Amino acid sequence: MNGPTSTPAHQPAEPGRGTGPGAARARVLRAARQALRVLAVELGTPTEPGTPLFGSVQNPWLRRLPYLVAFAFAVSLLPSGINVLGNDYGVNGGLAGALSTAQTVPLLLAVTRPLQAWWVIFAADVVGALVLAGVDGVAGRAWPWPPTAIVGYLALMLALSLRERRRTLIAVWLTTGVTGIFSEMRTPDGSHSTWVLLFVLSGVVLMMGATLRERGDAQRKLIEQETISEAERARRTLLEERTRIARELHDVVAHHMSVITVQADSAPYRIGGLPQEAQEEFGSIAATARESLAEMRRLLGVLRSEETERQGGEKAPQPGIGMLPKLVEGTVRAGVPVELVLPEGPVALEPAVDLSAYRIVQEALANVVRHAPGARTRVSVTTAADDSRLTMLVVNSAPPAPSAPLETTGTGHGLIGMRERVRLVDGTLDTGPLPDGGFRVAAQLPLTPPPTAAAPLPAKDSGSA
């Protein structure tokens, strides 16, 4: 027969649904099973098993400290525990020795596997409480945890807090408290209950140890971040110096490309009787030079600072050693007595070498002004006997006694810029302090740089300091 069907009134409700007592009981049981499952996972999953406490510490004495502390607790609690269980509580000698051994010797395991040691010691403490409940000497004494068990358990809590995560520590603490609550159901007559004392003290030790561990982890991460930041600052300084050098080289190369373009364009007018093929060749050279110059300007133009762009570009000519007297004059006005020695005759330098020589002396004098104000300084620029190399020597003495450095820390731009400019033209650089408190900068540059010196710097560091 077709038609709507109805659920019989006597059909039982689905378990876990509804609002009756059975549904509430089912929800409670389900929540209890979930809590027990989480508790079992936390208590059965140790963190970094086998790794010693303080294993990452550099100091060897601090690395040995957990072993020494665990050994001291074990050798002191073992005989005292046997004595307390045997003499005070009246436990049989063999059983007292076994219980005390199980409650103290695993402290040595707590250095590398504190959670596993907790399982052994906790089980031994529970068994010891059951044994003490059946002896006559428990009246008037501590139960379920005797004093030696409390001391060993707190030492174990400290090892746990320095290794395990917070959820595991909470699970251990709650297990300790629940066990103490169950012990109240069969407390021997006349005994003094100690489960509340152990529950409170273990919570305090766990909280203190976890706080110390998390603080140490935070300090380690901070040191790591500072190390990374320092490396990033050094890398940024290097890139900024290379960018500045690349901007200056752009002007040098652009000048040469402009000369090539003008010469190629004007060749048919300056040289009479050129065949048509030669005129076309010169035109092709001029067009290629103009195209290369435009590409280079588009590529390297992004390296110019926003301030430079707002000012309409760098219109000042690139300096060379011919402008060193003016540089020295400005340094003298800044309060630094400088003596300048230049070659007697004119020196023909490639633009890259001329610019690098000027910048090296400029950086050296700037460092003297910042870090040794008032120090007597000598700047010497000489050429080798075979006219193959140019030598720049900047030496300053220690600053006068009343003066103090304008900067106690620096960004490192000066020395990094010198190294990059020297490497650019295949030269050498030697810098360092002098015995009298001064500083020395010595650079040698070839008068004719290698063919790659005029090319832009590579983006990847090839090993320069």
Question: How many alpha or pi helices?
Answer: 12
Q: What is the C-alpha radius of gyration, as a whole number of Å?
A: 41 Å
Task: Summarize the main sheet.
Answer: 5 strands, mixed
Average pLDDT value? 82
Provide a short characterization of the protein structure:
By secondary structure, the protein is an alpha/beta fold. 57% of the residues lie in helices and 8% in strands.
Notes on the protein architecture:
It is a single chain. This protein is α/β, with parallel strands linked by helices and 465 residues long. It is built from 12 helices and 7 strands. It has helices at residues 21-43, 60-88, 93-104, 114-133, 147-161, 166-183, 195-270, 276-300, 306-310, 324-333, 351-371, 413-424; strands spanning 142-143, 192-193, 338-341, 377-383, 389-396, 428-433, 439-446. It has a 5-stranded mixed β-sheet, with helices on one face. Strands 1-2 form a two-stranded parallel ribbon. Helix 7 crosses helix 12. The radius of gyration is 41 Å and the shape is elongated.
List the helices and strands and how they pair.
Layout: H1 21-43, H2 60-88, H3 93-104, H4 114-133, E1 142-143, H5 147-161, H6 166-183, E2 192-193, H7 195-270, H8 276-300, H9 306-310, H10 324-333, E3 338-341, H11 351-371, E4 377-383, E5 389-396, H12 413-424, E6 428-433, E7 439-446
Helix pairs in contact: 2-3, 2-5, 3-4, 4-5, 5-7, 6-7, 7-8, 7-12, 10-11, 11-12
Features:
465 residues, alpha/beta, two-stranded parallel sheet, 8% strand, disordered N terminus
